[in-house]
Write a structure and sequence with these properties.
It is built from ten helices and two strands. By secondary structure, the chain is an all-alpha fold. A two-stranded antiparallel sheet has the order 1-2. The radius of gyration is 21 Å and the shape is globular.
């Protein structure tokens, strides 16, 4: 993989993290700040990468854009949009300015559209097909997320949802396995059987506690995913884990495209965080 592609995938991850914070209702003030800052940071890094290639320097975003246009003879797409995002970033960083959720969504979406055009024009890379999954170290999880992404494109939302959920649970299993191997915890796995409803409820509660204890930054999203997916997995040490349901499904259940997209975005971001924070290599039993 070329250094440019690795860089662009990393920048896309940063921008998509910003989108993740902007793309839901009832944004908190923290969501708004993170959305603006992450998308702005992705844009500035991209512009500075191109400026470095052209031996162009600048101290701030407006000067960077000006020098790329005048010295580098670059045509900067959506210039007004990124100038507006830059102004919002400055207000957010240097004052207590707050913005309406719709405004944050609009300026961050426009920022990502800029990245799509700039990637294509000056790096000959298609933003949408750059896969964050490529950066994952674990082959089995990478395969699950590749399948989830393909199913999402084919509009097989149930399959995509379950593959995304399985990738998350496999990453969590690796963390638990490795912590147990270090003697940090004693963990024999949860049965997740629904033959006895009370045992099933207890297992779910234990899993929620573990999510808050170890993965607190994603605990709310993980809880939402479980309520949407209803799936549970076993044999997570295998390439193709088994699948069941945490509660009986009554009638036909078809997840929506928004639910499947939420699950996929969450799974990629969560698994990448696990990879960076804990690692995704399975330690040998001591």
């Amino acid at each position: 993989m070329s250094s440019d592609i690795e860089f662009l995938i990393d920048v896309k991850a940063l921008a998509e993290h910003g989108r993740f914070h902007a793309d839901h209702s009832n944004l908190s003030s923290l969501d708004k700040r993170l959305a603006i800052h992450h998308v702005h940071n992705a844009i500035e890094l991209t512009l500075r990468r191109k400026a470095k290639e052209l031996n162009i320097t600048a101290n701030d975003m407006p000067s960077l854009i000006k020098n790329l246009k005048n010295q580098g003879k670059l045509d900067i797409p959506r210039e007004n949009d990124i100038q507006e995002l830059n102004a919002a970033r400055n207000q957010s960083q240097h004052s207590e300015a707050t913005f309406e959720s719709r405004h944050v969504y609009r300026i961050t979406t426009n920022g990502i559209e800029f990245l799509k055009e700039f990637f294509q024009k000056y790096f000959h890379a298609d933003y949408d097909t750059l896969s964050l999954v490529q950066l994952l170290s674990n082959k089995s999880i990478r395969h699950l997320l590749t399948e989830a992404q393909a199913a999402l494109v084919k509009k097989d939302y149930m399959l995509s949802l379950h593959k995304s959920h399985c990738a998350i649970d496999k990453a969590k299993w690796i963390v638990m396995h490795n912590l147990e191997n270090l003697g940090a915890i004693t963990y024999n796995g949860l049965s997740f059987t629904y033959k006895d409803g009370k045992i099933g409820e207890l297992n779910e509660k234990i899993d929620e506690v573990l999510d808050f204890a170890l993965f607190s930054r994603y605990a709310t999203e993980l809880s939402r995913l479980k309520s949407i997916s209803r799936a549970v997995f076993w044999n997570l040490d295998q390439d193709e884990p088994g699948i069941g349901y945490s509660r009986p499904i009554i009638g036909e259940y078809n997840p929506t495209s928004d639910e499947a997209e939420f699950a996929f975005k969450l799974s990629v971001e969560f698994v990448r965080w696990i990879d960076q924070a804990f690692g995704l290599s399975i330690a040998e039993r001591s």
